Amino acid sequence: MTVAGPPGGRAAWGAWAIAVSVYALAVLHRTSLGVAGLDAAQRFGINASALSTFSILQVLVYAAMQIPVGLLVDRFGPRRVLLTGILLLSGGQLAFAFSPSFGLALASRAVLGCGDAMTFISVLRVVARWFPAKRNALVAQLTGLVGTCGNLVTTVVLAQALHSEGWTVTFTTVAMLGLAVLAMVWLLLREAPPGSVAVAAAPPRLAVRRQIRESWAEPGTRLGMAIHFTTAFPGSAFALLWGLPYLVEGQGMTRTEAGGLLTLLVLANMAFGLLFGRLLMRSPRARLPITFTTIATTGLAWAVALAWPGGHPPLWLLVLLLLIMGSNGPASLVGLDYARSHNPLERLGTATGIANMGGFISAVIALLGIGVLLDALAGPAGYTAETYRWAFCWLYVPMAGGVAAILWLRRRLADG
Fold it and tell me: Is the pTM of this model over 0.90?
């Protein structure tokens, strides 16, 4: 049976708007610890290494779930996976709100990470079903942009709510937001245009091992993963956990001042998402220039900030650093565009899941390395500007490995 191509239009944007609301909710849940790190350390009586375990476990679960989630999306469709994701997100956050101990709180973040993992790939599958291929890159960037609205709520609203309402009330309220989104997806989301073949029945069902093997064998999938690995982690590690402690403990800012700077990171992410989306829609050739420019400017900005005498860069440099890191998330979506454009529809979810693992693996490496170094280098004065300066030098380790992988896989893709 021959089916017409995706139509686009108002119906497509309506389906996308419903699906992307789940992703915005997931980002809110994911980044909620970024403004609560100091509160969590005090609540559970833990040091920097233990604090980093929260985000590391959450991100590890997210990364480990990418291939299983991709397979689920390919077989059962994005709507069912999104509904499951909302339930896990809400349940994990609710458990986190009432956790009396570090161990239970850690388990709840793992559940949250599992739910988070089910959102982005599902939204991209909805996009692939509803929009023409030439618009996929733009809509993917818009998806990332809307996701940052969840991060904006975290930095602007959640940080203030934690201060005024307290831990349990704040995180319980965040968990309850999922009920409205669940109802909307359940009642209104159509994952494919009318008249198209059902999502789960359209592609041939490949054996699981074969589907993973063929997705991985495609050089475009591996290049996409390397790009995602290298571009995403500086901004994500900063937003997920270490940004607020770095600005408050390392730079002597108040929480309000640090929250304002973190808001700049989110706004820059939104602006770069629009810019990169337009560039990619005009020409796929912009993918690698965007990638290498983002890596180079991020590395240079951190080098200047870390080399600044005394470990206290001026405010203008911190602002510039956060604005540049705002490009990290949008640039990482270039990797997912490589996976999409080099794989057929029947394994699109699996290939996207593989590529989407990259940035979360590197985030784990960055989060863990910074936490371990902070504890190893801390003296009697605790975590000082000098401590943070040397700990953040760790960012260059995954960055160097990722650049080497991109250069090697780029040549393999060209040879193929």
Answer: no
